[in-house]
Design brief:
The structure holds two protein chains of two kinds.
Chain A (H helix, E strand, L loop, with lengths): L8 H7 L20 E7 L27 E2 L7 E4 L5 E5 L5 E19 L5 E21 L10 E5 L1
Chain B lengths: L2 E4 L2 E4 L4 E8 L3 E10 L2 E11 L3 E4 L7
Classes of the chains: A mainly beta, B mainly beta.
């Protein structure tokens, strides 16, 4: 047997549930999962890794769309899968498609911001796609498979 | 006949010109459908399937 330097794979999944606190943590009223939302941004916007929280600046607007976007379906908690003595992945994917129903979004948009509406709208991730407009229709974002290889969000060690 | 939600209200699909398209690349698989009436776009929907997930790599520091 031998010891191997590594970050424990269980820790990767536990990061996504706020199990570990290395600093000052927000006060939580319950142990339930937070509410996450998805807001759409114009192609002219600048949402990226430096984005810290949801903002209405450069968010899409139009008939049927409410500022802040829609709630992300989250019925499946984060998972972690160990691959070797040094490698593993913590991962999470929304458990349903993100759907904006009966909207008109006339100005081109190409990004969605996932953010935590329970924790002061703090940003989680930005996902981009080809520029779109919607006219009296639906805009649907279907999620990738919730696996170590394809999940929407992955924390990985190699 | 199918009814389509449009900017002019519900309209029979047979009265509309339908256009469809697909975008398939490393990042997404997207389909879209448009309905036109007398040269005017009256309905457009899109369905994006994200392919490319976001990965953050983590490392534990070494003491040697």
């Amino acid at each position: 047997m031998a010891n191997t330097q590594s970050m424990c794979t269980s820790f990767l999944g536990e990061l996504m549930t706020g199990t570990h606190n290395f600093g000052t943590a927000p006060v939580r009223a319950t142990g339930a999962a937070d509410t996450f939302k998805a807001a759409l941004y114009l192609s002219s916007a600048t949402v990226n890794a430096s984005t810290t929280a949801y903002s209405a600046v450069d968010e899409v607007s139009g008939a049927g769309y409410s500022a802040g976007g829609v709630t992300v379906t989250n019925a499946t908690p984060p998972s972690s899968t160990n691959a070797s003595a040094t490698a593993g992945t913590g991962y999470w994917t929304p458990s349903g498609s993100i759907v904006y129903t009966s909207v008109t979004l006339a100005t081109a948009f190409d990004a969605v911001l996932i953010y935590n509406s329970t924790q002061s709208d703090k940003a989680v991730s930005v996902h981009t796609f080809g520029s779109q407009t919607i006219t009296a229709g639906n805009f649907t974002l279907t999620m990738p498979a919730n696996t170590t290889a394809d999940a929407l969000l992955r924390l990985s060690t190699t | 006949m199918a009814l389509i939600t449009t900017t002019k209200g519900e309209m029979e699909e047979s009265l509309l010109e339908k256009k469809e398209g697909v975008v398939d690349n490393d990042n997404e698989y997207t389909t879209w459908v448009e309905y036109w009436h007398e040269g005017e776009l009256v309905h457009r929907s899109a369905h994006v399937t994200l392919k490319k997930s976001i990965v953050t790599n983590l490392e534990a520091a070494s003491f040697n």
